């Protein structure tokens, strides 16, 4: 039998930087190609060389468009990659949007660092440029969900929707006589705007995410929770600030808020402002690919017509000066940057206001600091006291919780020989490992970055 190896170049022991290399006798396949985000020690790994010559990577399979899964692609191409990058059509559009935005932010950060001399590098440079991102697009190759794609004589793959964000998929790679399924990011069993995930039912090996491997999402009705906190805050003449990921979460939020207004559960005249150029563009892509959602295109257009979309930063200052109660949805989702910082500078010190945390907050981010009840938040070099209500709504997560991950495994008609856990912080990885081995009696390995492991 031919030996197949797996080697994680990122996304092992952490929730960021996903890059999993499948080494086969015919092809070396990189599944996902993400940037490290979060604390400085992780971000610095983006500047390090991959633990494999780029020329030895034959092709890339992209499960979805989030930056921690696609953000390294411009560097991969810049460093010599010449193969195809396989993905679904919505993923292609979202990845282009996200990679251009990532490059633009890096160029701006480098320019500011050089202008204000707060860099140890002379000069500071971006990790990659917008031109580098555009060069990567030349290698994008779109595929249809559920179709079989022949990669070489003895290797083929198939994409199935994972319910995480628009276009996101799990991928099964059949290599010689073995099938290896890469989960990508697994969505919830229920989504307001996306079909529930589809399932593979046969695999010899599973490489699966474990973001929430150690917890269960709250069972409270999300509509009730939103209604409660919005109405309390409006009664107190405050603002509702929702730091949001631009892709997926923002669109789910505007849909649910529209539904609450339709049902007369929150004030009809309460302004809803989407202040994020990227979220605005991602919403337009969602409308274009409405057939990948559970909402008709006509309904999306009605929803968008009932919110205020702001692209221009100058208008942000006017919105902040307006003291009437409002809902602000702004990036970034983990409060690491973006326009939400401007709103928090003005609103986080006032107990009338509410900050709704509606997504995973990685270690080292301001969002995690708020969840840890930090009494102050550092923004642009200054400290701001935290007096606003900080409310976490875990039911919004686009990631499956422990019970949903276990259900995902139970869908397999044959018992996989081995499960390899990635994309989780150490406590989540260990909790899920123990749960799987105890309840399902399947051997589990937690992958370690740059450690090569034979699939036998």
Overall pLDDT score? 94
Question: Would you give the CATH topology of the largest domain?
Answer: Metallo-beta-lactamase, Chain A
The N- to C-terminal Cα distance equals: 9 Å
Find the structural class using helix and strand composition: alpha/beta
Report on this model:
This protein has 456 residues and is α/β, with parallel strands linked by helices. The chain is built from 14 helices and 22 strands. The chain folds into two domains: 4-215 and 398-455, 4-Layer Sandwich (Metallo-beta-lactamase, Chain A); 222-396, Rossmann fold (3-Layer(aba) Sandwich), CATH 3.40.50. Strand 17 (376-379) and strand 18 form a beta hairpin. The chain is globular, with a radius of gyration of 22 Å.
Summarize the structure.
By secondary structure, this protein is an alpha/beta fold. Helix content is about 30%, strand content about 20%.
Features:
Rossmann fold; single chain; seven-stranded mixed β-sheet; 456 residues; 2 domains; 22 strands; alpha/beta; Metallo-beta-lactamase, Chain A
Strands, helices and their partners?
Blueprint (H helix, E strand, L loop, with lengths): L3 E7 L8 E5 L4 E4 L8 H4 L15 E3 L5 H4 L2 H6 L6 E4 H28 L13 H8 L2 E4 L4 E5 L2 E7 L7 E7 L2 E5 L22 E5 L12 H14 L4 E4 L5 H14 L9 E4 L1 H12 L8 H9 L2 E3 L2 H9 L5 E4 L9 H8 L6 E4 L8 H6 L4 E4 L2 E4 L3 E4 L9 H9 L7 E5 L3 H14 L4 E3 L5 E4 L1
